[in-house]
């Protein structure tokens, strides 16, 4: 049996024997039940797939493909699978709890308002909201991960003769915020500040979107502009957008759509969404007076009456806008009004949404049945952190905008949510958010919810750390002490987190522990898994994570590959779980 040495000092080393993990009881029991005389044939494996794994549509060809995938192993026998080969299959990529190659299976022919969209916030930033660089690389990375909504902030350059993408604008700030090497103070509402984020060229951003938009998904990409430009610069933007995207650009046949088109009808199309430039028309001034994020537009300072050339510019720019955005004048109740003759997009900060749901929860649900609601991080999240996305999703918000450049619990949940539906960036909203009753009543997110399903998960074992990590990555003097945290992220009543025991000094931990979760809204539930290494001296070390949509989990004994903090899959690190669902009355 191989050994590992850990150097403690010049004259002392700790030596630990390493072992090969053996098939656990669940695996042995399944193999003995479905095999004959210690060998599992193709027909036996097919029976196992159907009866134990719940793959009712499995075929003999599927079972044969699994056999073929194991032929390179020395433990494979032509007559059939022995226990060890069966165990390796269960830990392999043919047995994933959530296959990454699953196909788009939601109905994609409904209006855009019937879907959650994988949405980015300040998509050009590489780091925090104050001093980080702007670049096309975060835009490329987001699109290649399946993000379907990209946000660009349009600003005049220092000379005022061209357009650049950067972060900065009018904020309603009542306090002074400090950040390393940066301090700004707002003495009055709508005071202007300019962040130290570096700009990036608009044309480069548009080109990056064009080149990367449809690699991960063929469904439409929406570009939301936060526009701080005058008419002359808007004319430049119109020209750049038109020339860059050409036939990819979706042009609305009518200015006021009564219903959004479907994702299916918009495959490989680019849609522009921003506030129509009505402030330059001298008309309809009772409509929209803010940028999409709720900040006042610098060009609104003082009255401006356009000449004929500027009005032509405005027409060109308006024609680009497929999804009109903005807030109606008046309070929140007006913002959420639903015009049967016109659909639009509304943007609220996370804080505005939290305040709104106290009084207008059902009105928000009704609004989002036809219109689009975008939620974005509050301005105090200078570190580019994120917020609880379920507040928006539970009220029907389609565009819950996230900072994609970092990592953390909420971003992992967001990534897990949009692994659903083939990872295409569009997830059909649950029916209960779209229904209306006989008296026009809609779903009330504040009403009590009944348990719909019981999810039972056994965390069996884990492997792969000794291959993907250096042997002193977790502890300088001994093998790691791993434990697993597993839980449900979802609506408040569904939130639950469990934890396994700590397995000391072991690269191949076997937990074999059962957990049970009561789930009320499985359509919005995400299974969160995180492996940590216990450290007596401080915070635990990170050993991998993943988040998976509960509605698409496959039952039976399944393998779950783990990812690093950025969401990139490790080559070898994975867990073996047993997953089953039961009805509430089985409790």
Automatic annotation (TrEMBL):
Domain PI-PLC Y-box: where? 347-433
Q: Which SUPFAM superfamilies match?
A: C2 domain (Calcium/lipid-binding domain, CaLB), EF-hand, PLC-like phosphodiesterases
Q: Where is the composition biased (Basic and acidic residues)?
A: 278-305
Topology of this chain in the membrane: Peripheral membrane protein
Q: Does the keyword ATP-binding apply?
A: no
Q: InterPro entries annotated for this entry?
A: C2_dom (IPR000008), C2_domain_sf (IPR035892), EF-hand-dom_pair (IPR011992), PI-PLC_fam (IPR001192), PLC-like_Pdiesterase_TIM-brl (IPR017946), PLC_EF-hand-like (IPR015359), PLipase_C_PInositol-sp_X_dom (IPR000909), PLipase_C_Pinositol-sp_Y (IPR001711)
List the catalysed reactions: a 1,2-diacyl-sn-glycero-3-phospho-(1D-myo-inositol-4,5-bisphosphate) + H2O = 1D-myo-inositol 1,4,5-trisphosphate + a 1,2-diacyl-sn-glycerol + H(+)
> According to the UniProt record, where is the region Disordered?
278-307
What keywords appear on the UniProt entry?
Hydrolase, Lipid degradation, Lipid metabolism, Transducer
User: Looking at the keywords, is Lipid metabolism present?
Assistant: yes
- The EC number of this protein is 3.1.4.11
Where found?
Cell membrane
Extract the PROSITE patterns matched here.
C2 (PS50004), PIPLC_X_DOMAIN (PS50007), PIPLC_Y_DOMAIN (PS50008)
Q: Which residues form the C2 domain?
A: 435-564
Q: Which top EC class is given?
A: hydrolase
Name of the protein this chain belongs to: Phosphoinositide phospholipase C
């Amino acid at each position: 049996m191989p050994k590992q040495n850990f150097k403690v000092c010049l004259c002392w080393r700790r030596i630990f024997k390493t072992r090969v993990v053996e098939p656990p009881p669940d695996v042995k029991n399944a193999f003995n039940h479905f095999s004959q005389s210690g060998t599992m044939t193709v027909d036996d494996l097919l029976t196992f797939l159907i009866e134990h794994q719940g793959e009712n549509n499995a075929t003999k060809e599927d079972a044969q493909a699994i056999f073929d995938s194991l032929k390179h192993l020395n433990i494979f026998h032509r007559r059939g699978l022995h226990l060890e080969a069966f165990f390796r299959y269960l830990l392999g990529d043919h047995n994933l709890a959530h296959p990454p190659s699953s196909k788009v299976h939601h109905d994609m022919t409904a209006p855009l308002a019937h879907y959650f969209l994988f949405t980015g916030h300040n998509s050009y930033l590489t780091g925090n909201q104050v001093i980080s660089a702007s670049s096309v690389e975060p835009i490329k990375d987001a699109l290649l991960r399946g993000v379907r909504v990209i946000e660009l902030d349009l600003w005049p350059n220092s000379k005022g003769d061209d357009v650049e993408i950067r972060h900065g604008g009018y904020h309603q700030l009542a306090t002074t915020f400090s950040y390393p090497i940066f301090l700004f103070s707002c003495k009055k509402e709508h005071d202007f500040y300019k962040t130290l984020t570096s700009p990036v060229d608009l044309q480069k951003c548009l080109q990056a979107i064009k080149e990367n938009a449809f690699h991960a998904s063929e469904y439409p990409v929406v570009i939301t502009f936060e526009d701080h430009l005058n008419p002359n610069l808007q004319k430049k933007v119109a020209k750049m957008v038109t020339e860059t995207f050409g036939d990819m650009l979706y042009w609305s046949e009518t200015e006021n759509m009564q219903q959004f088109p479907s994702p299916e009808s918009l495959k490989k199309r680019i849609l522009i969404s921003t506030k129509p430039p009505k402030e330059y028309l001298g008309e309809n001034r009772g409509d929209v007076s803010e940028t999409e994020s709720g900040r006042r537009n610098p060009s609104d300072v003082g009255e401006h009456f356009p000449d004929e050339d500027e009005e032509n510019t405005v027409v060109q720019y308006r024609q680009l806008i497929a999804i009109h955005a903005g807030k109606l004048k008046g309070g929140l109740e007006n913002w959420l009004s639903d015009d049967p003759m016109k659909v639009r997009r509304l943007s609220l900060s996370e804080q505005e949404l939290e305040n709104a749901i106290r009084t207008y929860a059902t009105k928000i649900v009704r609004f989002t049945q036809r219109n689009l609601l975008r939620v974005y991080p509050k301005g105090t999240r200078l570190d580019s952190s994120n917020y609880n996305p379920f507040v928006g999703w539970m009220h029907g918000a389609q565009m819950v905008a996230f900072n994609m450049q970092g990592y953390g619990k909420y971003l992992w949940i967001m990534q897990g949510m949009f692994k659903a539906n083939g990872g295409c960036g569009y997830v059909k909203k649950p029916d209960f958010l779209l229904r209306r009753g006989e008296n026009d009543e809609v779903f009330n997110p504040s009403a009590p919810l009944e348990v719909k399903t019981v999810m039972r998960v056994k965390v069996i074992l884990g492997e792969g750390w000794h291959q993907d990590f250096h042997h002193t990555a977790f502890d300088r003097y001994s093998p790691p002490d791993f434990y697993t945290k597993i839980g449900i992220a979802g609506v408040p009543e569904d939130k639950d987190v469990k934890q396994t025991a700590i397995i000391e000094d072991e690269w191949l931990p076997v937990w074999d522990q059962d957990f049970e979760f009561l789930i009320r809204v499985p359509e919005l539930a995400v299974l969160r898994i995180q492996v940590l290494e216990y450290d007596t001296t401080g915070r635990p070390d990170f050993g991998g994570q993943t988040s998976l949509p509960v509605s698409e989990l496959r039952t039976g004994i399944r393998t779950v590959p783990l990812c690093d903090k950025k969401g990139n899959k490790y080559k070898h690190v994975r867990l073996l779980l047993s997953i089953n669902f039961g009805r509430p009355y089985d409790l």
